[in-house]
Amino acid sequence: MCKPSIPSFTAVVMAKDPLAEAGLHFDELNKLRVLEPEVSQKTSELKEECEDFVDKIGQFQKIVGGLIELVDELAKEAETEKMKVGHRYRIEYEALQKVEAEQNEFIDQFILQK
């Protein structure tokens, strides 16, 4: 009687999958894939992380855009106020020059009368 030969565990583990050697793998739905399941999963995770990152960058750009608009608006208001103050100081300076001229003329007249 001849017993059928059962391969040992070591022989089964040592045997290589010809599809895996060719770079082909089956997924959980038994679909043939080119990527290893782990690589495919990591790729999907990376894709999700990238999408989250792009969304966060978009939110950041909106926030920064709003901040830039606010700073520009404040700068325009500051410039407007600066122009108003400058105009007011120029008018005040001219008025003081007039008072000084009047006082100098009064002093000159006072000195001439003596």
Write up this protein:
- It is built from 3 helices and 2 strands.
- It is mostly helical.
- The chain has one domain (18-113).
- It has a two-stranded antiparallel sheet with strand order 1-2.
- The chain is rod-shaped.
Helix/strand class: mainly alpha
The dominant shape is rod-shaped
**Reading side by side through the largest sheet, how are the strands ordered?**
1-2
> What is the helix/strand order?
HHEEH
Number of contiguous helices? 3
Number of strands: 2
The biggest sheet amounts to: 2 strands, antiparallel
Beta content comes to under 5%
Number of domains: 1
Mean of all residue-level pLDDT scores: 86
Low-pLDDT residue spans: 9-14
Taking the alpha carbons of the first and last residues, their distance comes to 157 Å
Helix content: over 70%
What is the CA-based Rg, rounded? 44 Å
Subcellular location: Cell projection, Cilium
InterPro entries: FT20
Pfam families: IFT20
Keywords: Cell projection, Coiled coil
